[in-house]
Amino acid sequence: MSESTPPPAHPALAELERRRAFVRAMGGPEGIARQHSQGKLTVRERIERFADPGSFREFMGLMGRATYEGGELTHLTPRAAVDGFCTLDGRKVVVTAGDFPVRGGSGGSSGGGLGMELAANRRALEWRLPYVRLLDAAGGSVRTFEEMGRTYLPDGNSFTWPDVQLLRAVPVVSAVLGSVAGLPAVNACMAHFNVMVKDTSQLFPGGPPVVKAALGYDITKEELGGSAMHTTQSGVIDNLARDEDEALAMVRRFLSYLPSNVWEMAPRAETADDPNRRDESLLTVIPADRRRAYDSHKVIRAVVDRDSFFEIAPGYGRARITGLARLNGYPVGIMANNPIYGGSTDVAAGEKIIRLIQLCDTFHLPLISLADEPGFMVGLESEKKGIERAGARLVIATCDSRMPWATIVTGQVYGVAGQCHHRPSGMFQRYAWPSANWGSMHIEGGAFAAYRREIESAPDPEAKRAEIEAMLKAIASPFRTAEATGQDIIDPRETRPLLCQFVEEAQPILASQLGPCPNPYRP
To answer: Hey, which residues does 413 pair with through a beta bridge?
Structure first.
């Protein structure tokens, strides 16, 4: 044998490579072609685009359903998921990705039982690493009954228990990248952030055939569980991406604000934005005529580090803006009333706020509130949705939270919804702009209720009501409140410097709160 001739392959290594080739084939050429024809990437293409180059390390990669003849392997159908470790900007995460061309992403009956290796969710929990689901799976299949020769009692909580624990320990993100049903649809919501792709992803407990069998009507997948449903009406999905690459970029960006686990501080980023920057636009952003709306996004952008705001759930509960940002490089949660959509906190907006409060408390981020709160949404439709219960949940979430919290009152703050911009315990700071006004209820709406007898008995009731309203407005100056309570009134241009200082001062408090939050995260 010449020196240039490679040695013969070891039989065991040849077998290993043969099995790996079966796994890399995924659902085979036809399945892959069908995936691409639907505008979707394959599972391995997704991981390659998502992870830092060369960082993916697969585990459980040889698992599947094998066919043998005479003791010799003839074929191996891989399991319908690819799991492993990878890094994102150098930080390690655990990723699990559904492989739809293999049995529609269904788990099937292969594997399990004695000697089973740790599943991806258990590894994320034990390694204390962020957990990312790239979902493209249809859940259970009745084909499994044929393979097993029996049916089974639904006892999935025995292996989804780690998913519950993960929400209290590490960041969890779900990306819906195809038609997702059954347990994977629930897993989409068992996350701190989720995203779906326009036109190519849908989400439901059971698809159109199940709906037809149960309820007798026809419906398309998009009508039943597409992006129009879940990012604007149900609120089940936070963000919408134009394509899979944008969805994966959103996942990476969301994770960049959070620590790897609750025992670590959130990572600070370098910034060239001066913490003492005083933005002149803040002097005029609030219209003199308060009946005119304005976009609170402008206030957020003027205050936080430039280009650092990442909005969460922009299409749902639009009276409130929620998201993550940075102040002098430190990650923060941020929320604001949005007068363009009325600003009043309705049930949907309340749900968004509660999730943001829980997120910040779980991962030790300061929370910044830009308050221009008219109060809870009133009216018949609001009552039908249970605004009182939603308000009670928001009050409880606010009072239970521990992370440092700063509120800037930019405009009005009224009623119980207004009090949810204040926390009576822990590190809390509140500043108000000169444009602020507040109270238990609006003067215009409350004057008649409080002065009804005087108004109705007056010779000119309308004139009397106008007189009373003018009197009340004269004493509604925020400076009168400051005289009595010590409330700090600031030049709006001081907002960013003061918030940057607050977040810096919050770091020792956050460090003292490391570890699991006493109030478990519930999506």
So the answer is: 373, 438
* pLDDT tens, position by position, 18-51: 888 888 887 788 888 888 989 999 999 999 999 9
Looking at the structure, tell me whether residues 250 and 289 fall in a common domain.
Answer: no
- CA atoms of 138 and 109, how far apart (whole Å): 15
Residue 105 maps to a domain: yes
Whether the CB-CB separation of 241 and 198 falls below 8 Å is answered with: yes
Element housing 488 (H / E): strand 488-489
Residues 96 and 160 placed together within one structural domain of the fold: yes
Q: Which domain, by its residues, includes 422?
A: 280-433+490-512
Please, which pLDDT band fits residue 443 given cuts at 50, 70 and 90?
low
453-499 pLDDT tens trace: 877 788 888 787 777 777 767 677 889 899 999 999 999 999 999 99
- CA distance linking residue 179 with residue 196, whole number of Å: 10
414-451 CB burial, b ≥16 within 10 A, e <16: bbbbbbbbbbeeebebbbbbebbbbeeeebeeebeeeb
Tell me the percentage of the chain whose pLDDT exceeds 90.
Answer: 67
The total number of structural domains that make up the chain: 2
Q: Are residues 87 and 141 in the same domain?
A: yes
Q: What is the DSSP string of 364-421?
A: T--EEEEEEE--B--SHHHHHTTHHHHHHHHHHHHHH--S-EEEEEEEEEEHHHHHTT
The CA-CA-CA angle for residues 33, 39, 44, to 5°, reads: 65
User: CB–CB of 139/183 below 8 Å?
Assistant: yes
- Residue 363 falls inside a structural domain: yes
Residue 235 and residue 120 share a domain: yes
CATH number, domain with residue 425: 3.90.226.10
Amino acid code (one letter) for 511: A
DSSP 103: G
Please state, in angstroms and rounded to a whole number, the distance separating the CA atoms of residues 421 and 367: 10
What's the confidence (pLDDT) of residue 5? 64
